[in-house]
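Appendix C. Worked example: DUF350 domain-containing protein
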Amino acid sequence: MEFITMRPILASIVFSIIGIAILLIAYFIIEKLTPENTWQQISKNNNVALAIVFGAFIIGISMIISAAIHG
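Step 2, the predicted output written as structure tokens:
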């Protein structure tokens, strides 16, 4: 059995936390830039189109963060 070092595991955890933080910051920036409260529009008014747009936004930002971290 090979010896597993903790450095790659720790780096993975740190990069995951940084990626999630960047994703949340990007979401809150977009939330401030939009004229309406998007979460209220999605949850209370059942705005499916806005939910699809924000889902695509989150996937897009996640892919960019992943590519930046992975190299």
